[in-house]
Amino acid sequence: MGRRFFARGVVDVATALLGCYIVHTMDDVVVGGRIVETEAYGGPGDPGSHAHRAPSGRARIMFGPAGVVYVYFTYGMHHCMNLVAEHDGKAGAVLLRAIEPVWGISVMRRGAPPALKDHLLASGPGRMCRALRVDRDLNGAEVARGPITVHRRKRSAVEVHSGVRVGLSDDDGREWRFWLNSPSVSATAALRTPGSGRRS
Description:
The chain is an alpha+beta fold. Helices cover 14% and strands 29% of the residues.
């Protein structure tokens, strides 16, 4: 999927991505899986967003163009991957929180705890980036060109759950975290934070 898919409201993109597939192609190695958990982040007016003040620093990428990868390093130990959304000039990005592993599971296992089950290899944003071999070298990559690509889900309805976003010191309680019924969602989503159900 290219830029047009991402050039719309960030909540629409966050829900539309559920059930889609994300792939990282590295020479002759392919890793990827089905997206099962996302979080939406806006711009000014969204206290939980990196872009809540102005287009400066690492958040500048969130102001467009849409359809590029935004990777940042957090807590001195984890990478997190976002896909920039919204129309040009309006900030927005979708944090990918979890995928169901499909391709390259043996590669995803490298560096993972030996006892970790396959379906949990990418359950959470840090685990997901490790499993997909994503780091800041991919910051700014266009999903229409790769090496990170996103592929549409099958044309079937999916039940989408929503709840508050995770781990924010400053937020206003908006329910912009979305997930599917899947054994691969993060531990927080697995607790089924109360929220509204919707169809996508």
